[in-house]
Structures are given as C-alpha cells and as structure tokens.
C-alpha cells in the first residue's frame, strides 16, 4: 500500500480539537440531572423560563443559567413573544441520544 495514502487516511480518522471540544461539552451537558430534566421537558413542548421553573420546581435563575449553557452548545433555541422567551430543542441528534438513553434506563 502507498505510504502517503495510508498517512492521509490516518489523518482523516483523527478528531480535530473543535470536534472533540463540542462532543465533550455535549456529553457534559447531558451529564447534569437538571439539564437532562430541562431538555426532557422541552422535548415534549416549548416552554418559557417561568414555565420550566414551575414545572420542575427550580429557581428561575437556575433555569436561566442552564438554558444559557444549553443555548451556547446550540442544544436549545428560543423565540420571543412580547417580553417572554419560549425555549425548544435545537438539535434533533442530541435529543434522540437523550431519548434513547432515557428509554434504555427505563427498560434496564
């Protein structure tokens, strides 16, 4: 086998730093019980910060902080209606992983 072709293939198999960072941050996001609860709630319907706080018995500041973390990873998005922001999932791939993992845990 041509040595240069083999070397090029090896480079393609390696994950670049940005990809590694995003993947690790995504798993970090999914590794927190509060964020899992928020994402699970949003997977069912969009909700405002107040709505999430009320339904999950969390402080509004906690919800806002977690949503900011999730938004920075592009896992949630929002739409504005007047002065209220309504949050919803922004990444079906990650939401599918979350739902499959929840399903796995419930049927273990």
UniProtKB/TrEMBL annotation:
InterPro entries named in the record: ArsR-like_HTH (IPR011991), HTH_ArsR_DNA-bd_dom (IPR001845), Metal_resp_trans_reg (IPR051011), WH-like_DNA-bd_sf (IPR036388), WH_DNA-bd_sf (IPR036390)
PROSITE patterns: HTH_ARSR_2
Domain spans labelled HTH arsR-type: 15-108
Keywords: DNA-binding, Transcription, Transcription regulation
Pfam families linked to this entry: HTH_5
Name this polypeptide is given: Metalloregulator ArsR/SmtB family transcription factor
Originating species: Metabacillus halosaccharovorans
